[in-house]
Amino acid sequence: MAKYLTKEKLYYEIHKYKAGLGLDYNDYGFNMLQVCKNDGVLLELLPFKTKYLRGMASIGAKREEDVILLNSNRDNIEQNFDCGHEYVHLCIHRNLRQKIFNCIDTIHVKQDEYIEWQANEGAAEMLIPYEAFLSLIKYGPFNINDPDGIAYLKEYAAIKFSVTKKVIEYRLESLKYEIHQFISGVPLSNIQML
Predict the structure, then answer these.
(1) Does the pTM exceed 0.90?
(2) In a 10 Å sphere around its CB, with 0-12 CB exposed, 13-18 middle and 19+ buried, how is residue 148 labelled?
(3) Helix (H, G, I), strand (E, B) or coil at 67
């Protein structure tokens, strides 16, 4: 697969991987660690000494040799997203020269910003499908034109999608253009991806 993907192409690829895992396009709230184990990924939780290291992925020569290591010092919700992030590396970045990915809370000098964007955006789409998220924003039990409503949205969505509020904030930012279109009346099927 090409290194550079548009958001639309990345989402398409994520949806194909979800289908291959037996998940529906709009499924959410699932245990990504269990999904990876069921897919044959060797997954281990270890107490990393490096404070900001969230996880690592190693692409094997065969699918059965793929490995994900997650920081056991992070809570289950954080690990679920971290696992999704690492899984995207295993799927989307399989044909790159790089075979080992160390994922740190902030972009490290040796990390490729675009590859890390793909892993974050892909994990977000896997765990928080944009169509379900946009529908929640438009039809949910909160007023998005009010700061208290936005705060409630973040809390509500974090629980609904089994992610952290930080991941919901990321999703709100990354889908700002798409959210604007949907709230302005553009049907989901006609949303243009930025």
Answers:
(1) yes
(2) exposed
(3) strand
